[in-house]
Amino acid sequence: MSKMYTSKIIGMGFHVPDQIINNNDLAELMETSDEWIQSRSGIKERRWATEDITTFDLALKASSNAISKAGIDHDEIDMIILGTLSSDYFFPGVSAQLQDKLGLKTVGAFDIKAACSAFIYSLSIADQFIKTGMAQTILVVGAETQTKLIDKTTKGRDIAVLFGDGAGAAIVQRSNDNSQILSTHLHCEGKDMRNLWMEAPGTSSGSWFKGQVFDSERFTPKMNGREVFRNAVKRFPEVINEALRYNDLSIDDIKLIIPHQANYRISEAVAKKMGVDMNIVYSNIHKYGNTTAASIPIALTEASEEGLIERGENIILAAFGAGYTWASAAIRW
Ligand code: UT7
């Protein structure tokens, strides 16, 4: 059998739009309150892209930041994997725009639609390509302008108050030292997909170019919040424990858990189930809300910039979201 390699993250970066929307701003648009939002979710403010800013714009800035942090030449990148559910166009993917604007060789580039789990799914794919020797340096991105999709009236308030826009990126490269992605575990259960979904546009809507299907109801995300919450609290600990078991690690070996930033109360419930203190569960949801595929790379960038993780320490990334999809990545930083 040919040699197997390992991969590691050599640089991270993120970018969020300038426009800050706090809870009181939302209360002017819909029936809600700062008290309700903070007590139910822990969110104080989030970023909204203005109409002229697209998912690609955020992805490009996050990627450029990651590339400069990694200190690599653009030419070294031999694949782009980008997680998003709010791409600029129905097709092709944002990854194609990135390949062009970053001025890369004609490297393989594709988008992953796995909602809040998309960054870990993408990281997992990158890890496999590097392990087999088929690629050496991969740009992995999570980017969203999901707030353009949401209903910002009282009718859509359960979703509108939670989500924000942003992008985060990682340069994943073949490792020649102790740092490595130890494992990734990916899951999906489609039976409850309607608990968190956006029905249209999609081919099930029929031929929308005839102009018959644009009822706005179906063109905005829908969520059964309580069911999503219940499943998240079950799946996060499950997939974190799967990572621990696989690597023969105990929770005491983990410096930081970086969960997808869905709701501070979900993170608290996960910490309680895992029997860990909240100070090892990273949170920046108060600043950004839930940025879907971007939330983990933004959180990981901030955690490392804040000096919370040092090379050689173990961390676990974990996500849960639409699909349902859920996933974890254990990393020796
Ligand atoms: O990335 C994964 C995606 N999403 C998630 O992980 C979200 C998971 N779910 C949640 O985080 C929570 O279920 C929510 C934050 C969405 C809701 O919190 P909750 O404690 O489950 O509230 P609820 O849905 O049971 O609603 C309680 C009340 C309802 O009023 P009634 O029926 O009790 O009169 C809602 O209509 O709160 C009302 N409500 C609001 N009130 C003010 C719902 N949204 C809002 C709002 N502002 N934004």
CATH superfamily of the largest domain, called what? Answer: Thiolase/Chalcone synthase
Q: Can you give the mean pLDDT?
A: 96
Seen as an oligomer or otherwise, the chain set is single chain
Determine the N-to-C terminus distance.
28 Å
Helicity range: 25-40%
Helices and strands, in order, run as EEHHEHEHEHEHEEEEHEHHHEE
The total domain count is 2
Overall form: globular
Architecture (CATH level 2) name of the largest domain? 3-Layer(aba) Sandwich
Largest sheet geometry:
5 strands, mixed
CATH domain class of the largest domain: Alpha Beta
CATH topology of the largest domain: Peroxisomal Thiolase, Chain A, domain 1
Number of strands: 13
**Lateral arrangement of strands in the main beta sheet:** 1-7-6-4-5
Small molecules in complex: oxa(dethia)-CoA
Give a verbal description of the structure.
With 333 residues, the protein is an alpha/beta fold. The protein folds into two domains: 7-177, Peroxisomal Thiolase, Chain A, domain 1 (3-Layer(aba) Sandwich); 181-332, Peroxisomal Thiolase, Chain A, domain 1 (3-Layer(aba) Sandwich). The chain is 32% helix and 23% strand. It contains ten helices and 13 strands. It has helices spanning 23-29, 34-41, 55-70, 94-101, 118-131, 157-160, 225-246, 264-274, 285-288, 295-305; strands spanning 7-15, 20-22, 45-47, 79-83, 108-112, 137-144, 166-174, 180-188, 196-197, 222-223, 254-259, 314-321, 325-332. It has a five-stranded mixed sheet, sandwiched between helices. The chain has a four-stranded mixed sheet with strand order 8-13-12-11, with helices on both faces. It has a two-stranded antiparallel ribbon with strand order 2-3. Helix 3 (55-70) crosses helix 4 and helix 7 crosses helix 8. The protein is globular, with a radius of gyration of 19 Å. Bound molecules: oxa(dethia)-CoA. Oxa(dethia)-CoA (UT7) binds at residues 32, 36, 40-41, 116, 157-158, 161, 196, 225-226, 228-229, 232, 262-263, 266, 290, 321.
